[in-house]
Automatic annotation (TrEMBL):
Pfam families registered for this protein in UniProt: MarR
Organism: Corynebacterium lemuris
Domain HTH marR-type: from-to ranges: 56-196
Region of interest (Disordered), residue spans: 1-21
Protein name: MarR family transcriptional regulator
Basic and acidic residues biased stretches: 1-11
Length: 216
């Protein structure tokens, strides 16, 4: 709960949105401090902390620990969804794209799916063939282009995905709803800023892939 925001406490108690789950924030299998700044960079080789106070370092470390715990849980959710659906990460990304497209009345083609996934047309064809054989999607005549086909997720796969991984990921909304508008602005700015920082200098990790670019 948030004692500094009594109005939101009252909303939670009244059922306006779920209260913070009473769970241990420590993620199983993750040693305490594993994401800490001092533990990962004791000699300041990665980050010059000479002008950062000890209190600020401690607070930032707590934030990094929280982000690490979130990543661990998201990885567990992802692994559980892959195991349940018996599909690969790229397959799941494709199905999610089809669900969103259907929800927003957008037509998906092989080329638009390839652009979204960042894979070649040949790899996209293999992916679509595999998912179609598995009963996860259907190809239909394009509504306005005779030369193309539209791609659609099957009702069975949509339901299975929505009732499992969809429900699990939607719980993030509850956490966001428990924040005040001002807090959400700060978190949004932080996440966007972090994404930009992580993109800087990432060229070393962008290698060309061939057959391995699609995970089955």
């Amino acid at each position: 709960m948030h004692p500094e925001h009594p109005a939101r406490e009252q909303q939670a108690e009244a059922g306006a949105y779920p209260a913070t789950p009473a769970v241990d924030p420590v993620v199983p299998g993750v040693p305490p401090g594993v994401y800490g700044i001092e533990a990962n960079d004791p000699h300041s080789r990665l980050i010059d902390r000479s002008d950062v106070s000890g209190g600020d370092v401690a607070q930032i470390t707590e934030l990094m620990q929280a982000m690490g715990a979130l990543r661990e849980v998201e990885d567990r959710v992802s692994e559980a969804s892959l195991e349940y659906m018996k599909l690969g990460k790229t397959d799941m990304r494709a199905l999610h794209f089809l669900i969103v497209a259907e929800n927003t009345a957008q037509t998906v083609t092989a080329s638009s799916l390839a652009a979204h996934l960042g894979i070649t047309s040949a790899s996209t064809t293999k992916l679509l063939d595999r998912l179609e054989r598995g009963g996860h999607l259907m190809r239909r005549p394009h509504p306005s282009d005779r030369r193309s086909q539209s791609i659609h997720i099957t009702d069975e796969t949509r339901t299975a995905a929505m009732e499992t991984v969809g429900v699990q990921h939607s719980r993030r909304f509850h956490a966001a709803a428990r924040l005040s508008p001002a807090e959400r602005e700060v978190v949004t700015r932080f996440l966007r800023d972090t994404a930009v920082e992580l993109e800087v200098g990432l060229d070393w990790g962008r290698g060309e892939t061939s057959e391995g670019e699609v995970e089955s």
